[in-house]
Amino acid sequence: MRIHIATDHAGLELSHFLIRELTKLGHEVFDHGPSSYDPLDDYPSFCINAALAVVADSQAQVESLGIVLGGSGNGEQIAANKVKGIRAALAWNESTAKLAREHNDANVIAIGARQHSPDEVLHLINLFIAEPFSKDARHERRIAKIATYEQTGDIL
Prior knowledge:
Layout: E1 2-7, H1 12-24, E2 28-31, H2 43-59, E3 64-70, H3 74-81, E4 88-90, H4 94-102, E5 108-112, H5 118-130, H6 137-152
Parallel strand pairs: 1-2, 1-3, 3-5, 4-5
Helix pairs in contact: 2-3, 4-5
């Protein structure tokens, strides 16, 4: 699986850990920044670039997912969700990590680096990666409604 990862300063060390561990598991990991610690960094650029890469891969029919990290993961999720075609979900436990994929076909996971240990975050990410979208008609219908609004502004 191709993985695009981005963070803010709060998740920098965690992102380095995840890049190493996910690479060991056979994933192709792309780091969208930052490259060094800066407590005043502006995470939206990093997260938007990771999200854009996920969309580009999808358009090229390359299987990929994104990971965005921050102190809480909230701002990073918001930034990623501004990219058309992205469904970023904040995960804080096993259930939210799995349901993000199973029900929402999320293509980006957001996690708070200050909320979990590195091993807990890796576990949540592995659950997210492994969980398939259910393709249940009700979930497909709901995702289609979100996509229609995103593309046209029409609320169905």
